[in-house]
Amino acid sequence: MLSDRNLAGLDLQGANLQSADLGGVDLSNSNLRGANLSQCRLTGATMAGTNLENASLFRADLSDCDLRGACLRGANLDEVDIWRANFQGCIIGADILHGLLGCEEP
Questions:
Q1: Residue 36: helix, strand or coil by DSSP?
Q2: Which residue range forms the structural domain that includes residue 64?
Q3: Closest Cα to residue 37, out of 65, 24, 56?
Q4: Do residues 104 and 85 lie in contact, with contact meaning Cβ atoms separated by under 8 Å?
């Protein structure tokens, strides 16, 4: 189980972490370029400054995730849950299709 661990600064380029429970994990300033994070639980994770270029986050749960300054260029965010996630200062260029953006209906 990896939840609530400090994994800051790790090089996980191309890693297959599909369906992993990474809730509360500190992945700040890590390299996850091209990694498979599909269907991962990343609720409350810290990913500030993390390189997620070309990573797959298909159906991942990023709710309450800190992504400040992360690179999301080319990342797959289809059907991702980003409720209350912080994207301040991110490098965006990701594809989001059918994502849960946390917008409330009037």
A1: strand
A2: 1-100
A3: 56
A4: no
